[in-house]
């Protein structure tokens, strides 16, 4: 059996960022300790099932608010109950203003071998517009501390579409990426969810328009490539061999189990999630799971997720999963003619320009598989 991925949601933040709709609440030491024990209890439900896992990802929230010993406790439980392999990729998200050299060393000693910092921007004005509580200097220092502590795998998140951002200010983020010792970058488009405070803010009027944003995306991708990071997914860039193995599981529709409040799982062909309720989860871990999709359509999934990857999808694999490659090719022809997609090595992939309009392309191609 292919080893699975493990996701652990740690829903604690020092302050809520005005654009964020991830499930998280205020950090309190006692609540975090009780929550970590609840995560371990949920993991124990799978003990003795002969599972093997080769990736574990601490996401949030802000995992770096939790003491290294707490993450270490969860890792030991994952090894004992979920078969987390000694060679596993073990990642954590971190906020630049929550770490110290000693704390980072502690995470490394507990077995974490990859850190992804939520940097978001290398420009002070953009950080202020996002309501981030760290500075550019703190972000740079945090990554250097992590390198000094012994982490060889380091990633940062950056954002496009931030209020006040333009091609000139983007240079500050690119310059930061260039001087930091990274092997991976994620570059996300700011998506303003209705439920967040940013949705009603006049700051939104200061966001780049669609064309300028598209130009910035293409420019950034080209510059990162020039710095030795190849694009392997719509939003992700890595030095050769340094892709996030955990995130690849999502895009390759591999199995993963999510632990913690609001954590999602894809397991035995079903998608389900824990309710987003920290108190209820801590009291009764693993109870009240919400079934999101009882029977996932494998061909649909392969198409939707696989076309996020620069290598795209293979026609033979699509056929194996019950899809119709010929119908897909006919539907994709006009996107290929427009330079938004291309057939290559017996498969189909989106081009970088295609990534910019991937949602509408995918909905049309998906329609071709289910009608
Ligand atoms: S620190 Fe991250 S998870 Fe927490 S509120 Fe900000 S963006 Fe959301």
Summarize this structure briefly:
With 371 residues, this protein is α/β, with parallel strands linked by helices.
Could you walk me through the main structural features you see in this protein, from its secondary elements to its overall organization?
There is one protein chain. This protein is an alpha/beta fold. The chain has two domains: 247 residues, TIM Barrel (Alpha-Beta Barrel); 73 residues, Arc Repressor Mutant, subunit A (Orthogonal Bundle), CATH 1.10.10. It is built from 14 helices and 17 strands. The protein starts with a strand and ends with a helix. Iron/sulfur cluster (SF4) binds next to loops.
Helix-strand layout with pairing:
Elements: E1 4-10, E2 12-13, E3 25-26, H1 29-44, E4 53-60, H2 68-82, E5 84-94, H3 101-109, E6 114-120, H4 124-130, H5 136-149, E7 153-160, H6 167-179, E8 184-189, H7 210-226, E9 230-233, E10 236-238, H8 245-251, E11 256-259, E12 264-267, E13 270-273, H9 278-283, E14 290-293, H10 298-306, E15 313-314, H11 315-320, H12 325-337, E16 341-344, E17 347-350, H13 352-356, H14 358-370
Parallel strand pairs: 1-4, 1-11, 2-3, 4-5, 5-6, 6-7, 7-8
Antiparallel strand pairs: 8-10, 9-10, 12-13, 13-14, 15-17, 16-17
Bound molecules: iron/sulfur cluster (SF4).
């Amino acid at each position: 059996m292919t080893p699975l991925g493990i996701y652990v949601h740690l829903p604690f933040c020092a302050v809520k960022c005005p654009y964020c709709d991830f499930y998280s609440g205020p950090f309190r030491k006692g609540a975090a300790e009780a929550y970590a024990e609840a995560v371990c209890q949920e993991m124990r439900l799978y003990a003795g099932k002969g599972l093997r896992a080769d990736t574990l990802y601490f996401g949030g929230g802000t995992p770096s608010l939790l003491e290294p010993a707490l993450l270490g406790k969860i890792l030991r439980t994952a090894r004992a109950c979920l078969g987390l392999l000694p060679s596993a990729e073990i990642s954590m998200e971190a906020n630049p203003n929550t770490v110290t050299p000693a704390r980072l060393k502690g995470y490394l000693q507990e077995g974490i071998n990859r850190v992804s910092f939520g940097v978001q921007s290398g420009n002070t004005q953009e950080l202020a517009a996002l309501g981030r509580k760290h500075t550019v200097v703190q972000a740079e220092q945090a990554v250097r501390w992590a390198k000094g502590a012994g982490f060889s795998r380091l990633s940062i998140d950056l954002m496009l579409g931030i209020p006040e951002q333009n091609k000139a200010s983007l240079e500050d983020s690119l310059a930061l990426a260039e001087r930091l010792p990274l092997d991976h970058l994620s570059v996300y488009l700011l998506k303003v969810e209705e439920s967040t405070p940013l949705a009603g803010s006049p700051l939104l009027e200061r966001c780049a328009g669609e064309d300028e944003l598209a130009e910035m995306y293409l420019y950034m991708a080209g510059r990162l490539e020039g710095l030795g990071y190849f694009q392997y997914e719509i939003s992700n860039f890595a030095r050769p061999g340094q892709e996030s193995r955990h995130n690849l599981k999502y895009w390759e529709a591999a199995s993963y189990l999510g632990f913690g409040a609001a954590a999602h799982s894809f397991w035995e062909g079903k998608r389900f999630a824990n309710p987003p309720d920290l108190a209820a989860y801590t009291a009764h871990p693993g109870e009240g799971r919400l079934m999101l999709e009882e029977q996932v359509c494998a061909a649909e999934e392969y198409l939707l997720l696989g076309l996020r990857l620069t290598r795209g999808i293979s026609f033979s694999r699509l056929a194996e999963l019950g899809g119709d490659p010929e119908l897909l090719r006919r539907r994709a022809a006009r996107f290929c003619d427009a330079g938004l997609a291309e057939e290559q090595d017996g498969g189909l992939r989106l081009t970088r320009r295609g990534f910019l309009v991937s949602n509408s392309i995918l909905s049309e191609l998906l329609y071709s598989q289910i009608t």
